[in-house]
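User: structure tokens for this one?
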Amino acid sequence: MKNLPANQLDPADRRILAVLARDGRIPVTELAKQVGLSKTPCQTRMKRLQADGYIRGFRAVLDSARLGLAHVAFVEVKLSDTREAALRAFNNAARAVPEIEQCHMIAGAFDYLLKVRSVDIADYRRVLGEVITRLPHVEATSTHVSMETVKDETGPA
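Assistant:
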């Protein structure tokens, strides 16, 4: 099968993706049963979906609170320079910071929105002051602290 655009995936492909999004560790025989295929065609489709980039990988969803990283802050970042080289420098530096769980370039009043995970507010203050504000071209930041996770599609809240 050839590489298909998302709007050309057939219903069986979409069922496979839906089941795997809920349970990436499901055995292929159970996956096949749930999507109404036999094992071999299901495996073939799954391999194609991986090769075509629809399935980027499988990973464990960790409980951050149990790991001592329950504090979540969202940080608006405004850059002093938004030319391509500056954006690239910021992107590369942000990728290297373990406390930055997500980094999104934003169209709006600021340039980036970061999801930062830390031990507590004191640890966050250290990360902000010693790490985030020192990333390339950071001009200003504004922090929003999460009080409770209501919905998180990466795992149980």
